[in-house]
Write a structure and sequence with these properties.
single chain, alpha+beta, BirA Bifunctional Protein, domain 2, Elongation Factor Tu (Ef-tu), domain 3, nine-stranded mixed beta sheet, six-stranded antiparallel barrel, globular, binds serine
Length: 898
Amino acid sequence: MINNSTADIRQKFLDFFHSKGHQIVASSSLISNNDNTLMFTNAGMNQFKDVFLGLDTRLYQRATTAQRCVRAGGKHNDLEHVGYTTRHHTFFEMLGNFSFGEYFKYDAIQFAWELLTGKHLFNIPKEKLLVTVYATDNEAYNIWAKDIGMPAERIIRISDHEGSSIYDSDNFWQMGDIGPCGPCSEIFYDHGDHIFGRPPGSPGSKEESGDRYIEIWNLVFVQFNRQADGTMLPLSKPSVDTGMGLERIAAVLQQVNSNYEIDIFSQLIKAAAEVTCTTNICSTSLRVIADHIRSCAFLISEGIVPSKDGRGYVLRHIIRRAIRHGYILGATHPFFYKLVTPLIEIMGNAAEQLQRNKNMIELVLRNEEEQFSHTLERGLSILEHELAHINSDTMDGATAFRLYDTYGFPLYLTVDVCRERNINVDQEGFKKAMEVQRKRARETSSFIGYNHNNQYSSMLNIAYCTNFLGYENVTYHNSKIMALFCDGKPVEVIDSINNNNNLNSIVILNETPFYGESGGQIGDSGELKSDTGIFKVFDTKKYGQSFCHIGTLSYGKLSIGDKVIAYVNKARRTCISLNHSATHLLQSALRNVLENNVEQRGSIVKDKYLRFDFSHNKALENEQIRIVEEIVNKHIRSNLIINTTNMSIDAARQKGYLLVLGEQYHQSKVRVLSIGNVSTELCCGTHASRTGDIGLFLILSESGIAAGIRRIEAVTGEAALACLHQQKHLLQSISQQLLKNDGPNLIEKVRSLKDRTKKLEQQLNHINNQQVVQEIAKLSSKIRKINGAQVIVSQLENIDQKILRTIVENMKNKLGSAVIILANISEMKANLIAGVTGNLTNSIKAKDIISTLTQKVGGKGGGSPEIAYACCSDITAIPAALSHITIMITEKLLTKNV
Ligand code: SER
């Protein structure tokens, strides 16, 4: 056998399939903008999903890739196994070969066998390999048995899971709940009888099957398109999708029994031991950390940051799991972020994306570690306490929930810790306790079920290809209706009966000038007119290669086959295009003003404004914002030509053009957009023809949206002008109407006004204090002593309410044992206040005094036993009410033993 490095194996695989006529295609992003059915890219075939479904085409019919995958969260979730088995990872690379309707089972099996066993290829001894096929797949069985010559005892048929429906089998692969799928044949490697393990198909769970027989390659024969309701629609062109875990085949070829012993992992584990100061190199925790740093670093490099929901939640989960394992090893300070540098060195060429985003990855990891360390320490000590007192092998759900709810200690960590002590956690009980927090539960689970294409899913088997004409036209006179949908169901006609004013009707045309939402640019709106009807388009979205014109029928009817004139709302489209071109200028200016490695992290291009998220780890200073604005406006005034050319994606990559992360570049040709010599990017959006059209660019706000990610919102053209006018008008109004100041020294004027206000406030305070002193002196002369307490009941005039309270509080302090009742008449209304010192509140309460008074004088009031207020309007009743309360208080004080 050959002793290959992981990098060599990757290259050998791609070269082998290239020699068999396969196009080498780059790994796609870990996140897909176009497929919300997927949490993360989990297989090599994801980027070709639409090609398998016949919704998209490529210039090639055979492809090969080394695809970065994350299996955590979503349908294929290996997170809980990681560290405890020799072969599961959150992040791994999947080597694959694909046939789009060209070769099928025979060639797929022949290619795999040749590569695995070929003398000058992987040269694995044939007797070390065994295979599985789907129980009823005789075709695959016979190819293995007759063509390859595999002995029958090493071909295992795998049935559907017991008690489940057809195709629910380990040998039936599907990407998600919907989409391409089919029976598969898996190739296993036997690591030898010195390792525990049962052959595939043995009873028991996957964990129980041990590590002797390891699946190294999965050959999927893609035959169906699974619908949301479970129906399997046969595909017109059966295809092939294969996947071989790079780390697993590396273990085989490097003659080690665990993925964690291959070259890259042994180096990573060494680095993890160093940063956590661990000497036991065999520790499970080191494996967990070495695995998790790869998924975390790659996910962050793609713009994902830890958060409470969706992808960010899964990332947070993985980071925290790694931190806890560091804690087990005794790490007391942030350590995880320190693995980014060794990771980049170890991954070599495959880490180019990490190198570019190194600072941000480290920053995000460090932030999360610092935030989480306190929660972890406290949660673990409480959990230890609970575990010390547990009498059974199950921790109850309420305790797990209390840890989560009160101490923020996540359930998965409780499960993880308990698992190490062979204790189960009653997760059902946890869920019940969690029900009260439904909102958060929704947040954390919503992603997986969320599918924004759901309303179109019934169209999965409809493969129209709409020709987009909107770069040159905003009106097109000769479009034909190919399909119609109402409420997600295909219909022949949209009329007032089935449309019924709902906004969920969809028209699909053969050709359209309407831009379908993509690349951050929103879809066009407008109108479709035929001889028989008018359809208002509110939005346009792409599904595969079909453009969905979403809207409502406003008149008549539309039928499949009708010709329509398609009118894009031109004014709105113009604004969108200006904003899109300005976004490119903004990105280029940011690269000039900040570091050159500013990376796009998201973008929304609307008609009213543009939003651009980018990697940068601190807030922009006002001066930097001004310079960015100035650069963009300078390019606008230069009236640069905006040009587009089409080229192959590889040519674009070689030229170093910016590929936007998360974007899938499906077509063999990409559109390269250049603005003068200022910016060149791949872009499918619509743009101005010259930068001068943008008119004006104005930044509205700059803010942070997550660690290491900033957001700029800006406006262009008329919106920017309107914004300037509004600001100008505001300033004029302030200066002319409020400040009566036409001169240029507005700031001076406002500053002097502020100074003056401050001085006046000081003077007013002084006067108020004097008034308090004077009033207290006057009131002191009215004190009556009753049974050791001092009582003041008095009527005042025109005293500010705050001062009134200060008077009462000061007098209570001064007199020590007192009841003070004041009625202040001002503007024909009376404010009543009663204050009682704490020593008297057992027998006399301020709020009772106020309540007695308001019964006499009307109005409303309230307060505490020590101070209470009321406001009333019948001022004529005040003197009598005060006399009445004086008598009552006197009686109370005399009868009480105070
Ligand atoms: N899609 C299949 C898998 O992930 C083969 O690539 O196993």
